[in-house]
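Posted in: Structural Biology > Protein-Ligand Complexes

Title: Requesting predicted complex, flavin-adenine dinucleotide in pocket

I'd be grateful if someone could produce the 3D structure tokens for the following input. Sequence and ligand are given below.
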Amino acid sequence: MSKILVFAEFQNNKLKRSSQELLQFAAKQGSPVVALALGSQSAAGKDSLAHNGAQEIIFSGSTDFDQYNPEFFSSIVSEQIEKSEATIILASASSLAKDLFPRVAAKITAGIVSDGTELTISGGIAQVKKPLYSGKCFAQAQFENCKYQIVLMRANQMIVGPADTSKTATATEITFTKPSLKTLIKQIVKGTSEKLDLTEANIIISGGRGLKDAEQFKLIQPLADVLGATVGATRAVVDAGWVPHSMQVGQTGKTVAPTLYIAVGISGAIQHIAGMSGAKVIVAINSDANAPIFQKATYGIVGDAFEILPLLTEEFKKVLQH
Ligand SMILES: Cc1cc2nc3c(=O)[nH]c(=O)nc-3n(C[C@H](O)[C@H](O)[C@H](O)COP(=O)(O)OP(=O)(O)OC[C@H]3O[C@@H](n4cnc5c(N)ncnc54)[C@H](O)[C@@H]3O)c2cc1C
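-- Reply #1 --
Done. Output follows.
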């Protein structure tokens, strides 16, 4: 039976939820599951790979992997995939994986589908549903004549159950010689937020130009704190300099797929919708009943965000504190 290899990523010393999703999904397929994890966090977090379904772990705790370098990563990951004998390779559609895996696919002559929102594996063949044209339609992709099938799945598309701490796995540390590199990454500037990255978040509250200015934009923070949500924004807000680009949701920002997306003072331009239409439940708060966002929203509140935000915050506080 062909093996499934999951490329696992860690953040703040924890296995990312998106990697948990993939490991638990792979474990349900009845095939042997291999986890590949790179960097010092992977050495410390090896057990969590086993607890989520990996039977075999290939890892390197080397700090050489703590800073992403496309050339270096693609050479090691390609080599490890070939050695592992896995034919289906799963990774989350993170920025790192979306940069890395097309290079890996070229090196090992693999088929690749990214931004998957549904995945089934039958008879060793992966079938992937993915959005096209900014979510206006969906394609069903199937691999043909490929030895290797690489699938990059969007986060929050699969169910995550509790990890089983009684599970163990065999772990092998990678030995490697660092290849001579043509490129050098000098610095990666990381966001300072303690909150989950937008692409991983289960609840997102995004604010738009309707919040008027940078100071009043902060009024969404109390509601985000009560709900444990990550804050996002529209491009209008980013362009105005109220928040950094790392918070932008949309065609030229991040693609998100939370369970709950609350859009506050956002008109619902097609470029914004492109980044958040994968949310399961969308709540829109807008003073204009004809705003296009209401066509996408599961629930709509027509009214002034400055009146509604404090009311919602208080109500959620009451409900969640009981
Ligand atoms: C190539 C390209 C790429 C782009 N990429 C992106 C992208 O990635 N992400 C993105 O977001 N945009 C993107 N845009 C911009 C996009 O077209 C819109 O301009 C932008 O999304 C509008 O942001 P907004 O909804 O915050 O502002 P507006 O469109 O100005 O909407 C503000 C809304 O707030 C409402 N409002 C006003 N006052 C209140 C109040 N007191 N209470 C409640 N509601 C209120 C108004 O009714 C209005 O609907 C892109 C554009 C282009 C051309």
